[in-house]
Amino acid sequence: MSNARKLKGRELFEKIGKPTKIVAPMVDQSELAWRILSRKYGATLAYTPMFHAKLFATSPKYRKDMWCEMDGDPNFDRPLVVQFCANDPEYLLQAAKLVQDKCDAVDLNLGCPQGIAKKGHYGSFLMDEWDLVHKLIKNLHDNLDIPVTAKIRIFPEKEKSLQYARTVLDAGAQFLTVHGRLREQKGQQSGLADWETIKYLRENLPSDTVFFSNGNLLYPNDISRCMNQINCDAVMSAEGNLYNPGIFNADDCQDKEKVFPRVDVICREYFEIVKYHELSSASRTAMKSHLFKILRPFLPNHTDIRASLALLNAKSSFDDYENKVIIPVENVVKSIFQETDIEEKDTVVKGDVELWGGSYYTVPYWRCQPYFRPVNGVTADKRIVECLKRKAEIPLENVHEKEIKV
Ligand SMILES: Cc1cc2nc3c(=O)[nH]c(=O)nc-3n(C[C@H](O)[C@H](O)[C@H](O)COP(=O)(O)O)c2cc1C
């Protein structure tokens, strides 16, 4: 197909329904079953996990583990962007051609900061090789039937981040996702995403750029806060979505069943989706990890179920998952809801507006909710305050106690 007939970013964005809420690419976590569940709860676009382009192009076994004929099905898995990591333009093109009929665009991962990406020479480790980045994208832009897109991290310098984003767009990327963290911000050092730099890029790139913002979404109403602040076309969520698929239900912020759904309901719905899409071995493999995340607030209160889940693995039968985890969770929550004071207990309390512009919520442990990852032993809420303190150059001890409580 010639480039003249290929959809440009804005046309593609409109064709797929102008999605504003995107499930991020997540290795072993944004597979078919999870995308189906997330769409049910309000996601309007989803990315596959990152696939290794060379392995995808050359190893039938790898491909079978990652991708099945149900992936990208027009009836239940679109719109869909398939993401690859790569450092060789030809392997990337070969891999992309294998999926171009089953998705709406192919994305290049330029953000992965893990050791494996350093060793494999891909992801954020291409941030120092702009020529190669350009070639990888351009080759897809010139030779693939469908558009190419890219997901980047930022540099410490705003101006350099802007030049980098321009390189990516000049090469032919039709959507640009900006994850507002540096390459060094990973694991314990993740810290906060920098919305200011994301906004700077948005303001200084051509106004018709289809631009997605990624990072710092904890609650559904952070979505509108982010869209208003950055003026992006859409927001992308990874961890927020994993711990609470209800995060995308931003239009129903008043309905706690949608915004903070019950863990028993989500576990059952998700489990039935995995069972129904048995062909997807990626979905099967990811199930244990998803259940641990959905149940994160719940399991410390029911350690017997935690122990049972810990003993299961990808080869355990569906019956085992159902009898040892899904049904016991349902039974516990059912008995909680038979308590006489349940109405009082089952309330979600919104905290005051914090320094960072949003509020924390107190959510009962039987409902899905965000997880605040500790950084060097400090939880995210305190981290936010510390970060703001540094910016404002006022001593931490002056921070009011209420401001650092979840
Ligand atoms: C479990 C997990 C797997 C991830 N895998 C990928 C991936 O395959 N490709 C990618 O570009 N980013 C990946 N990321 C990064 C996310 O897409 C996202 O950029 C990052 O988590 C920041 O978003 P968040 O603040 O909403 O979590 C992953 C993140 C998580 C938590």
From TrEMBL:
EC main group: oxidoreductase
Molecular function via GO: flavin adenine dinucleotide binding; tRNA dihydrouridine synthase activity
Cross-referenced CDD domains: DUS_like_FMN
Gene3D superfamilies registered for this protein in UniProt: Aldolase class I
One annotated GO biological process: mRNA processing
PROSITE patterns linked: UPF0034
Cofactors (names): FMN
E.C. code: 1.3.1.88
Catalyzed reactions per annotation: 5,6-dihydrouridine(17) in tRNA + NAD(+) = uridine(17) in tRNA + NADH + H(+); 5,6-dihydrouridine(16) in tRNA + NADP(+) = uridine(16) in tRNA + NADPH + H(+); a 5,6-dihydrouridine in mRNA + NAD(+) = a uridine in mRNA + NADH + H(+); a 5,6-dihydrouridine in mRNA + NADP(+) = a uridine in mRNA + NADPH + H(+)
Alphabetical list of InterPro entries matching this protein: Aldolase_TIM, DUS-like_FMN-bd, tRNA_hU_synthase_CS
Any single Pfam family the record assigns to this protein: Dus
Limits of the DUS-like FMN-binding domain: 23-331
Keywords: Flavoprotein, FMN, mRNA processing, NAD, NADP, Oxidoreductase, tRNA processing
Family note: Belongs to the Dus family. Dus1 subfamily.
Name the record gives this protein: tRNA-dihydrouridine(16/17) synthase [NAD(P)(+)]
